[in-house]
Write a structure and sequence with these properties.
Layout (H helix, E strand, L loop, with lengths): L1 H16 L2 H15 L8 E5 L3 E2 H26 L4 H24 L7 E10 L5 E10 L6 E6 L1
Antiparallel strand pairs: 1-3, 2-3, 3-4, 4-5
Helix pairs in contact: 3-4
Length: 151
């Protein structure tokens, strides 16, 4: 019985070390250190939950829907010449453009990939400790970073 329990615990430990979240975090840390002015000053602050591209698309669509709702409200209450209405239309157009860009860039036809937000502290070229954030985009098996965006 002890032997079975030990094998089970060892198996769980091995599996959890190779989780998609851990793989993505490891790739992100390597990327930051390789591209830093002072890699020795790197200190991880947080990693968000690893999410699929499908979740990006759903989030973007919900933002666009909310923006469209506010745009229509602004037009109704303040008229077509209103600065508020113009601003909401501008936001709506930006969200629409973002979704189109994501679709083109990550080929959402076969939604297959992941993204991870990472915040960290690191010294800049002047030696000041800075808080930075990067959004990492990974391929479907989280074996490489496809793209990054500074936050």
């Amino acid at each position: 019985m002890k032997k079975v329990l030990m094998i089970l615990l060892a198996s769980i430990a091995i599996i959890s070390c190779n989780s998609p979240q851990k793989k993505a975090e490891k790739l992100a840390k390597v990327y930051v250190k390789e591209n830093a002015n002072d890699p020795s000053s790197y200190k991880s602050v947080s990693f968000e939950k690893l999410k699929s591209y499908e979740e990006i698309c759903q989030y973007s669509i919900s933002l666009m829907d909310r923006s469209m709702y506010h745009f229509k409200e602004a037009l109704y209450y303040s008229g077509y010449d209103s600065i508020i209405a113009y601003r909401h239309k501008e936001l709506h157009d930006n969200y629409t453009e973002s979704i189109d860009s994501l679709n083109r860039k990550y080929k959402f036809h076969g939604i297959d990939g992941w993204y991870l937000e990472h915040w960290y502290q690191i010294k800049n070229e002047k030696g000041d400790l800075m808080l930075n954030g990067i959004m990492f985009y990974f391929n479907h098996d989280i074996s490489e970073i496809i793209d990054t965006n500074e936050l």
